[in-house]
Amino acid sequence: MSALNELYKEIAACQQCQIARYRTRVVPGEGAEDADIIFIGEAPGWHEDQQGRPFVGPAGLYLDQLLASIDLKREQVYIANVIKCRPLGNRDPLPAEIAACRKWLERQIELIRPKMIVTLGRYSMAMFFPGKSISKIHGTAQKWDNIIYYAMYHPAAALHQQSLRRTIEEDMLKIPSLLSEAKNMTETEQQPKQLSMFEV
Length: 200
Ligand code: URA
Prior knowledge:
Elements: H1 3-12, E1 30-31, E2 37-41, H2 46-51, H3 58-68, E3 78-81, H4 95-112, E4 116-120, H5 122-128, H6 134-137, E5 141-144, E6 147-152, H7 155-160, H8 162-173, H9 175-180
Parallel strand pairs: 2-3, 2-4, 4-6
Antiparallel strand pairs: 1-3, 5-6
The structure holds uracil.
């Protein structure tokens, strides 16, 4: 069994916060174990909770289209969320839930060792770009420890706000050149992941 599959077993047994009690299925993440890119959303919604798979509802269909626009299929990337269980009623995740779940995402990143991490929406952005505003930093990239961190709006936001649609589509189109120029990109001095506003 692969290390990621071993990890899924641990995630499925996690009861560290209250939302584990209400989930139908845990949604650890899925995709290529050697993916160059990890896309990180917020939390499973109703569809994801039913199927145990990330981004399979309307936002997921749109994410598939965005991936297709850069000639990628979801099997070629890795897709995960900040939170592995669905918060009841699709409420926003609580700081304590994010803090409790954070270690799973960190272990997924360690195992996959992607070249690029794309945050989708405010919650995953806040893990890597603490204190920043998505309206300011979307479509911009930083490199730390050989990984490019790139912030995008959440696909669900673009589905609900027509004005964001063009923005998210343009931001997606920048990914292939960022990836191909990854080696030449200069590292930023400050390391992310340390100052998360959600740290408790
Ligand atoms: N929204 C997310 O952030 N993640 C999912 O898996 C589905 C919708």
